[in-house]
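Render this sequence as a predicted structure.
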Amino acid sequence: MWDTNLQRTVYMARTCKITGAKVTSGRRIHRSGKAKKKGGIGRHVTKTVKRQFKPNLRQKRIWVPELGRYVRVKVSARGLKTIDKNGAYNTLKKAGLI
């Protein structure tokens, strides 16, 4: 998405509007060496490296029969299951989107 006044790219936050899931950080273990079953002396942990866990987000248009229109929502896969379970109107109203 381009901001026409500033001529730069504007990114939206990676956050689910329904569940509130967002990017979290963690670590990945780096190992070196050859596995014992492949003839080596075993794998050894050498260091940990930072990484990010990103939510499974989708930009969806959700039909709300009570309003008679579509609502655009950035929602995770779990959020879609919540909408299916509780209904579009109730879920979006509880999230403050309508």
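Summary. The chain has one domain: 10-95. The CA atoms of residues 18 and 95 lie 6 Å apart.
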